[in-house]
């Protein structure tokens, strides 16, 4: 007589429940702890500038050159965002242009793009280009220089990558019109761009942060798959067969 399915599953569970529980534990550990293993991001300042210039060239615009003072302003702004937990262009009555001025950059025009929770430079640029106001900064013919900061750190309890790109054109002095009034021609600053507009809602901070990073999600899934394969291999082992045989003798059921 063949062993019944329910009895087989019961015996299988008795032998492998520890492995199954361990598999579930590893899966959830991958989801909730891997976000703390930060900086799987491949974003770099050079790639952001390169991709920005590629888009500008496609639109017959001049390329932007990296400016040391704008880069300094971008890093200071990024550090303040991380420290304050505010993903914003302006901090109260302090405009984003304040960081540019404090870095010593005198400008005619200035703009800023922000992005957070992205894994690749391409992903950040794609999101910016999909936003009209962010795209306006990237493709604005008034800008000639840029500074980019890529900061890996903890933001509101989650490890992430923050990107700050500041655009500018230096203050020029014309023999006819004189100097342009500094800070009077600031372009409309766009709203910050997170990867997921619903991230960290409903108390699922780690879960949303993890899913915002495809590499972390893949690692979590692979971890679970490996343990499922391991559990399946145990089920086919001689030890399990012997275990079932012993149990079947007690039940007086033949094992095939």
Q: What features would you describe in this structure?
A:
It is a single chain. With 256 residues, the chain is of the alpha/beta class. The chain is built from 9 helices and 7 strands, in the order H-H-E-H-H-E-H-H-E-E-E-E-E-H-H-H. The strands form 2 sheets. It has a 5-stranded mixed β-sheet with strand order 1-3-4-2-7, with helices on both faces. A two-stranded antiparallel sheet has the order 5-6.
Shape: elongated
- Kindly state the number of beta strands: 7
What is the CATH domain class of the domain at 42-170?
Alpha Beta
Average pLDDT, rounded to a whole number, is 74
What is the share of helical residues? 40-55%
Low-confidence stretches: 34-39, 175-186, 195-213, 252-256
The helix/strand class is: alpha/beta
CATH topology of the domain at 42-170: Pathogenesis-related Protein p14a
DSSP helix count? 9
Keywords: Membrane, Transmembrane, Transmembrane helix
Protein name: SCP domain-containing protein
Domain SCP: 50-166
Pfam families: CAP (PF00188)
